[in-house]
Amino acid sequence: MASEFSTLLRRLRHNAGMTQETLAERAGVGVRTVRGLETGERADPRVTTVRLLADALGLKPAEREDLLAAAVHRGGHTVRQEDPAEHAVRPDDPPGHTIRPDGPAGRAPTPDDPPGHATRPGDAADGGDAGDPAGRAGPASGPPASVLHDTLAGVAEQLAHAVAARWQREEEQRQVHDPYPLPVHWRPAPEELTDHWANIRRLPAGGTHGPLDLSGRLDEIAGVYRRIPSGRLVVLGRPGSGKTILTMRFVLDYLKSRARAEPVPVIFSIGAWDPTAVTFRDWLTAQLTRDHPGLAAPGPGGQSLAAALVESGRILPVLDGFDEIADGLNRPALEALNATTLPLLLTSRPSEYAAAVAETDVLTSAAAVDLTDLTLGDLADYLPRTTRKARGGDPATSAWDPVLSELRERPHGPGGAHLAAVLTTPLMVTLARAVYSDTPGRDPASLLDTRRFEGPEELENHLLDNFITTAYRLRPGHHPAGGSRRGFEPERARYWLGYLAHHLARLDTPNLEWWRFGSGLRRSTRTLVIAWVICLTIGFVDCAVGVLFSPLGFQLADGLMVGFLSGLTLGVAYWFMVAAKDVTVPPANVGMKMFGRARKAARGTAGRFLIGSLFGLVFGCGYGFMQGVLVGFLRRVGLPAALQIGLDNSTLYGVVFALGAGPTLVLLVLLETPLDIRSAVNPVSLLRTNRRTVLAQFIVWATVFGVLVGVASGLAIRPMSALLGPLVWDVTASTKLGVISGLGGALGYVLGLTAWGQWMVFARIWLPLTGRLPWAVVAFLEDAYRRGVLRQAGAVYQFRHARLQDHLARTYRESLAPREPTGPRDAAPVR
C-alpha cells in the first residue's frame, strides 16, 4: 500500500515534470529504487537517498523538510545526522567522481550509477537498503552491504592487477614501444553517429549542451574518456587503424590512475557475443569466468564473484570489435547495449556501426571519435628509426629514405600514390616494418615498383603474404618449445594458420578456443570421430587388462565387443548431449578436492545420480547380453541356452553398473572446488589446469566406479542366483570386472564429455592425422604467439588482426582447389 512518503514523492515528481527514469538518472540511483519508493514496495528509505531525490527534484526548503519528515514517519526511526557537505554525483561530474562514504567503505557502484559512483555502506546495490535486492529489510535478506563491498573491492583489486599484467605482457610481445608507439590520431565522429551532447553531458532540461573537447593523443586516451560524464565512448576506425592498440593503452593508463571505488576496465572481444541468445550482463559474466576461472567462486550474496562484479558496476567493459559480430546481429547488439546504462568503450569499423545506427539508434549517451590516417610526417619520424644505422656511410640515412623522398616529392606518381594509400594505417606500417626493417637484405624501395604492384590491393597482399614468411624465418637461437630445432617451415605454417583462420570463419568468431577445435567439423563427423576414438581406446584397454585374467582368444573377442558397444553408446550419448544441440563442452572452472572434507554440493546431485544410473543400466544390460551370448557360443550350448545366459548376464550387469555409475557421478560433484580467485589464465595455463582437473576426475572415476562395480558384482551374486538361477562367479571375476570397468568408464567419460577430451580427440589426433594441424599443436600456437602472428586475449588466442585472419582464410580456401596431392597438408578437404 502506498504510504504518505510514496504519495508525496510521486506528486513532487509530477510537479517537476519528470518521469521515473529522468528522476533516477538525475539523482544517481536506480530506476527500480524510484519505482519501489513510489509504489510502497521499498520500506525504510535511507536519508541519503531521500536527499539525492530532493536535490534532483530541485525542492524548496519547505518541500525538502516535508519529504524528509514523511520518510522518517514511514520508516519509524530518528533521522541520522549527516555531514551537510555530503553531495551527490551531479550530471556533469566526471566519471571518476564519488560521494563521500558515511563509514569505512561505500557501497559498490550499481549499473545505474554514473561511472565511479559510490554511496554509503547502508545502501543496497541499486539504491535501496542493504542486502535485499527488493529493498525489504530483515536479518535473512543477505550479507551486510559492508561485507559485500569489502569482498568485491578486494576481488576487483586482484582483477585489476591481473588485467594490468596481462596487457602489459601483450604490449611487450607486440613490440608496441619499439622504438615507440605509432601515433593514433582521431577527430570527432559525424554528428549522426553521436548522441545529443546534453545526454552525453547528462545535463538537466534546459542546460547548455555544447560539444565536449575530445582531442588528445594515444597516451591521453584515458584522460579523454574521463572527460565524458556519461562514461560512454565509441571509437570508430577502418581496418588496421589502431583500435586494438588504443584499447590496450586505455586499459593500462586507466588502471594506473584508477581509484579503488572505480570500475576495472576489462577488454572483451564483442564479436563472439550473440545478443539474441544471451543477455549482455550474462555474457560479460561468462567471459570473465572463462578468462578468470576463480571468479566462478560464489560471493557473499550467493551469486558468482563474476556476476557480482558485473551487477555492482565494478567492471568497465572495453568492447573491441563491434563490426565482428555475426551478420544480422549488429542491430540487436546495439539495442541490447542501449537497454543498459553501463559505462563502456566500444570500437568498431565505421560502416558496420553506421549501418546498425541507421536501423535503430546511436549508442545512448555515447560520444564518438573517428580514427584518422597516419601522415607522411608520422612515417618519416617512425620508419627510419626501425632500421639499423648504415655501415660505412652516413649514419643519419636509412633504407627508408628513398621511399620517403618519393612520397614527399612525387606524391601523385603511380608508385608513391599506391604506397601512400597503403601506409596510412598502423597495421600496414607495422607489417612493412616487419618485412623490410626487421629482415636483413630487404630493400623497401621495391615497394615502389609499379610493374610488380599495380595497385594498393597488391601491395597489401604482398605485405600480408610476406609477413608470415618473415615471421617464420629461421632466427639464430630460436627453438620453439616442443618443435624441431629448425622451427616450423613457412609454407606449412601458412597452411596450418590458414586452416585456423578458416575454422574461425566457419564459427563466425574471432576467438580461437582450444576446446572448440572440433566445432568447425560437421556434427556427424564429430560424433563418428568421438565414437571411433572411444571404441579403439576402450577396446585396447579391455584387451590389455583382460589378458591378465582370461585367455587371449576370448579377450580379443571381448575387447572387440566392449569397444564396439562403448563407441556406440557413448557416440549416441555425445550426439544427443553435444553434437545435436551444436554446443561445446566448456573447460571446467573448478578443480578436484582430493583430500579434506568435500564441499557441500547438494544441488545437481540428484540429476547426476539419475543420469549416471540410467547410463550404467543401459550399458550394463547391453554388455551383459553380448558377453553372455559370446560365452554361450564359446561353450557351444546352443542358441536358446546362449540367449538365456545373455539375458541373465544382462540383468546382473545392468544392476551392477547402475549401482556404480550413479554414486560415482555424485562423488565427482562433491569433490569439485572452485579455482583460486587469482587464477588469471592464458590459453596454455587454462589447458594445463583443465588437464589436471580431468586427471583427478579420471582417478576418482576409475577408482570409485571400479570398486563399486567389483564389490556390487560380488554382493549381487547371491540374490541374483536366487532370482535367475545358479550363476558362476568368483573373486577373480569381480576383480576383473572392476578393473576394466573403472578404466574403461573413466576413459569414456574423459574423452567424450570433457573439454580436455575434445581437445585430445580433435586437436591432438584427428586434425593432425588429416594434415590440417601439426602434431605439436600447443608448441605451434605458442610459437605463433611469440612470432606476433597470434595474440592472447585471456583464455583464447586471436589473430593479430582481423585483416590478417581474412587473408589467411582466403588463401587456405584457394589451396583446397583440386590438385595433385603433394604431402600431408593436401589431405581430405575440411568437413
TrEMBL record:
<dbReference type="InterPro" id="IPR027417">
    <property type="entry name" value="P-loop_NTPase"/>
</dbReference>
<feature type="compositionally biased region" description="Low complexity">
    <location>
        <begin position="131"/>
        <end position="146"/>
    </location>
</feature>
<feature type="transmembrane region" description="Helical">
    <location>
        <begin position="609"/>
        <end position="631"/>
    </location>
</feature>
<dbReference type="Pfam" id="PF05729">
    <property type="entry name" value="NACHT"/>
</dbReference>
<keyword id="KW-1133">Transmembrane helix</keyword>
<feature type="transmembrane region" description="Helical">
    <location>
        <begin position="560"/>
        <end position="578"/>
    </location>
</feature>
<dbReference type="InterPro" id="IPR001387">
    <property type="entry name" value="Cro/C1-type_HTH"/>
</dbReference>
<feature type="transmembrane region" description="Helical">
    <location>
        <begin position="694"/>
        <end position="717"/>
    </location>
</feature>
<feature type="domain" description="HTH cro/C1-type">
    <location>
        <begin position="9"/>
        <end position="64"/>
    </location>
</feature>
<keyword id="KW-0812">Transmembrane</keyword>
<dbReference type="Pfam" id="PF13560">
    <property type="entry name" value="HTH_31"/>
</dbReference>
<feature type="transmembrane region" description="Helical">
    <location>
        <begin position="651"/>
        <end position="673"/>
    </location>
</feature>
<feature type="transmembrane region" description="Helical">
    <location>
        <begin position="529"/>
        <end position="554"/>
    </location>
</feature>
<feature type="compositionally biased region" description="Basic and acidic residues">
    <location>
        <begin position="79"/>
        <end position="95"/>
    </location>
</feature>
<dbReference type="InterPro" id="IPR007111">
    <property type="entry name" value="NACHT_NTPase"/>
</dbReference>
<keyword id="KW-0472">Membrane</keyword>
<feature type="region of interest" description="Disordered">
    <location>
        <begin position="76"/>
        <end position="147"/>
    </location>
</feature>
<dbReference type="InterPro" id="IPR010982">
    <property type="entry name" value="Lambda_DNA-bd_dom_sf"/>
</dbReference>
<dbReference type="GO" id="GO:0003677">
    <property type="term" value="F:DNA binding"/>
</dbReference>
<feature type="transmembrane region" description="Helical">
    <location>
        <begin position="737"/>
        <end position="762"/>
    </location>
</feature>
<protein>
    <recommendedName>
        <fullName>HTH cro/C1-type domain-containing protein</fullName>
    </recommendedName>
</protein>
